[in-house]
Design brief:
Elements: E1 2-3, E2 12-15, E3 18-28, E4 36-43, E5 49-55, E6 59-62, E7 65-76, E8 79-84, E9 90-94, H1 95-98, E10 110-116, E11 121-126, E12 130-138, E13 151-156, E14 161-165, E15 173-177, E16 182-187
Antiparallel strand pairs: 1-6, 2-3, 2-6, 3-4, 4-5, 7-8, 7-10, 8-9, 10-11, 12-13, 12-15, 13-14, 15-16
Length: 189
């Protein structure tokens, strides 16, 4: 058992029957009363952020988690199939576990799983912050209409739709932020 003095960002603990990851914490020593720790906890199943205050020195149940590298193979229905890069074992996860960033996964791409060591189940899937994708379809942009920050829809090779500037055309490669789903820049070469 650990205590609040062991808190650090990224620590996974069991709280109210679920697994939570510490996003941020702050030790507070008021002039009156006992010390306490303010935290922001992210539920690893739902992704919701919960503010919570712990009394200093209270016992917490720390959970052991591991990070493992996997490669995305293919999608079948709502299941996403992955292969462990070390053991070459294949596994699948529901698309809901990955969240909105699943739309930017392309075959052969490496991702990182956060795995609960005791139950050997995947808690979260982390994609790279940015991925380079080819634009498969977009409407042609109007010439001379670049004075404003006008954007248009573009379909990328994974089937996702991204808002891009007017000068981006079909066949070009763009960099997309997987956390927000927004266009970042055009990729040369």
């Amino acid at each position: 058992m650990a205590t609040t003095s062991d808190f650090r960002n990224g620590l996974v603990l069991e709280f109210n029957g679920d697994l939570y990851s510490i996003i941020e914490f702050q030790h507070v020593k008021p002039g009156k009363g006992p010390a306490f720790v303010r935290t922001k906890l992210r539920n690893l199943k739902s992704g919701k952020v919960l503010p919570n205050t712990f009394t200093a020195g209270v016992k917490i149940n720390v959970q052991r988690v591991e990070r493992k590298s996997y490669q995305f193979l293919y999608k079948e229905g709502n299941d996403m199939h992955f292969m462990n890069n070390e053991t070459f074992e294949q596994t699948f996860l529901e698309e809901a576990i990955i969240g909105d960033s699943a739309a930017f996964l392309k075959e052969g791409q490496n991702v990182e799983f956060l795995i609960h060591a005791e139950t050997d189940t995947a808690l979260t899937v982390d994609l790279p912050a940015y991925v380079d994708l080819e634009v498969t379809y977009t409407e042609p942009g109007d010439k001379g209409n670049t004075a404003t920050n006008a954007m248009k829809d573009a379909t990328v090779e994974t089937g996702a739709i991204v808002r891009v500037p007017l000068f981006i055309g079909t066949g070009e490669r763009i960099r997309v932020d997987t956390r927000t789903g927004e266009y970042s820049e055009r990729v040369k070469g």
